[in-house]
Specification:
three-stranded antiparallel β-sheet; alpha+beta; four-stranded antiparallel β-sheet; 5 helices; Immunoglobulin-like
């Protein structure tokens, strides 16, 4: 049985509606895209930092919320750009799992996860020495305090242990002692100037005394 023109039009319309519905469903199921851009994956994080995510909504939707998690504990959320939050990583030297979850206006969700390094992996496996440089006069004055603080820092003690308990320090590298030399020359110049002033004052006083004595009547 051959289809009538009316039936053919109805079939074409039905196929078009099914195709449109399939495309819309695929767009909705795709959801937003999200990527954590800071901190970088496999990096070491401590102290105050900012978790930043790049978020793009799928066609026909908008981003309604982005939540941020550290070790599965929510540390903040945003409902509008910029998609970032401040976070205090502290000084625990621990490996952290950072996750960001984006939700769009259709209720679809996407997430991205990064893993930070613990301090031992990030630093102590590197074949490098930390060498403090004390160049200026102020640096040299503060050198004992700086080294004392380093040697009481648990993280730095682990670094020293990894490097065989050997510490190298650079003092007055290159011609960086210019400020000390300049200070010495200024002080020496002031000393010479004061000395010359004192000598001149004594000379003038003695000269005035002699002139005064020469004017006195001589005893017969």
């Amino acid at each position: 049985m051959r289809a009538t023109p009316f039936q053919r039009i109805a079939i074409v319309l039905a196929i078009s509606l099914l195709f449109s519905a399939g495309v819309s469903a695929r767009q909705q199921s795709r959801g937003p895209s999200i990527q954590i851009t800071s901190p970088e994956n496999s990096s070491y994080v401590d102290g105050m930092t900012t978790i930043v995510a790049a978020v793009v909504a799928a066609a026909g939707s908008s981003i309604t919320e982005v939540k941020f998690f550290v070790d599965d504990v929510e540390v903040g959320s945003r409902t509008e750009p910029p998609w970032e939050i401040p976070w205090d990583a502290g000084a625990t030297f621990a490996r952290r799992i950072i996750r960001a979850v984006a939700t769009d206006s259709n209720g679809a969700q996407s997430e991205d996860t990064i893993l930070t390094l613990d301090l031992e992996t990030a630093v102590f496996t590197a074949e490098i020495d930390v060498v403090p440089l004390f160049e200026t006069r102020d640096d040299l004055v503060r050198a004992p305090e700086v080294m004392r603080e380093l040697f009481t820092n648990p993280a730095y003690l682990r670094q020293l242990e990894a490097r065989g308990h050997r510490q190298e320090v650079m003092l007055g590298y290159s011609d960086s002692g210019k400020d000390v030399y300049t200070a010495f020359m200024v002080r020496m110049g002031l000393f010479v100037a004061v000395t010359l002033y004192a000598w001149l004052a004594v000379y003038l006083l003695e000269h005035m005394r002699m002139r005064h004595l020469s004017r006195l009547p001589r005893e017969i």
